[in-house]
Amino acid sequence: MSVTPRPAIPPTGPASRREILARSGALGAGIVFTGALTELFTGTAAARSLGHTGYGPLVPDPDGLLDLPAGFRYRVLSREGDPLRSGEGPVPSNHDGMAAFPVRRGRGAVHLVRNHENRADGRVPVTPVEGLTYDPAGRGGCTALTLDSRDRVLSERIALAGTAVNCAGGPTPWHTWLTCEETEDRAGTNGYTKDHGFIFEVDPADPHRTGAVPLTAMGRFQHEAIAVDPRRGVVYETEDAFDKPFGLFYRFLPEKPLGGTGSLRAGGRLQAMRVPGVPDLSTVRETGAAFDGVEWADVPDPLATATPIRFQDFGPGGITHAQKLEGCYWGGRSVYFVSSFARSAQGSAADHHGQIWRYEPERRRLTLVIVFGPDTDVRLPGESPDNICLAPSGGLMVCEDGNGAQHVYGVTRRGEVYAMARGRQNIGTPEEPEWGEFAGVTFSPDGETMYVNCYTPGTTFAVTGPWRG
Predict the structure, then answer these.
(1) pTM reported for the whole predicted model
(2) What Pfam families does the record point to (predicted)?
C-alpha cells in the first residue's frame, strides 16, 4: 500500500504554537502543544460544549493535599493503608488507571474501578480473595468503590487480586473495566506461580461475575491501555516499552464482538499496526501529517511463549514501533493513542516530549494530531502526557508524569494549557521535596465530578465545582 503524506489539517479554532502560560495560570508548567486540538473533539459529546479558558489560578490547600482553582473542592474517597470497608484488608498502594460507571437504578450513584500498579515489592498489596485471585504471589489488582450521588463512599472492596503491575486499561461499551498488566514476567520470576502480562475483565457491580480469568488471546506483553470501538467491538491496545525494540500499537478482533461481559474469553485475532515506510513513529514531526493505507499484521505468537511480541518477525515490511505508548481512548469514529515521549539517546529515531495520534478505521488513516516539544518550551523530559480523558465541560484533562511539582492540566480548544490541580503530598524530604504523579483521571457519567488518583501516597479524590457544560 502507498503512504500518502497529507498537508496539515486546518483547525476550526486557533491553536498557537507557543501559548503564554501565565495567562492560563500554568506559568512554568513546561507543557506546550502544537497542532489542531479540535481534531480531538470531532464527533464527541465534548464538541457540543468545548472549553475555551481555564478556571483561574490554583489556590493553596490549607490541608496540604490538593490545590484547585477558586470555587472547586475535593473529597478524599480513599487512601492507601486505610481499612477497606469490606474488611478485606487495607486499601492497596500505587493507585493508577481508573474509570467511572453508572449504577443501574442508582439515581446518580457511581461505580469506580481502580488499578493498583503493585510490583513484586509493592508496599501495600491487594489482599487475595477467593474467586478473585489469579496468582497468589501477585501483589497487584483492582479495587471497586460505589459512591452515592454526593460522592459518599457506600462500599469499597477487592475486585481482582493476584495480578501484577496493573497500570491502565479502559472501559468497555458493556460497562466493565479491562485492566492491563504492564509486565512480561514469567512464572518463576519474582516468585510468581503463573505467567503475567495479560488483560483481565472486571465487572464493577459484581467482580465475582468476571473472576480472575486472563484474556490470553489479547496478547501477553507490557500492556498499558485499551479503547473499544463501540460500533465494531474491535479493541485497540497500547504497549508501554521503554527500551528498544519499542512497543507496538495493536488491535484485537474478537470472535464475539460486542457480546457483553465475558465475551472476550471466546478469543479472536491479535494484530499489530504497520505504517508502510514508517518503522518508528517518532520520526513524524509535523502535526497534521497523515498516512493512508495503514496495514495490520497478524501477531505470530500472541502468548510470547519464546519471544516477546515486539521482537517477533512480522515478515517483509517489518512492523511500526514507538517508545512509551500509553494512553488510549475512543472518540467519534476514531481511536486516539499517546506516545508519552521519545528519546534518541535511548534508541528512538527522533526526540519528542509527547505525541497524540488519531487512527480512523474506516479510512485506514493515521494522523499525528498533537506534538509536545522538544522545539517548544518543554524542558524536563518527564513532563509528558500520560493518562488523558475528554472533559464533559470541554477540552482535555491530562495527568502529568514528570519531575518536580505534579499537576492535572486542562487543555482548551484553543490549545491553551491551564493547571487544574496540583498535588501537595510531599513523599520526599523538606530539603528535597518530591510529589507523587497523578493517574486515572476520569469523570462521572453526569459530568459533575472529576475523579483522579495520586499514585503515591495512593489517594483517590473526587473534585466538584463550577464545571462549564
Answers:
(1) 0.89
(2) PhoX
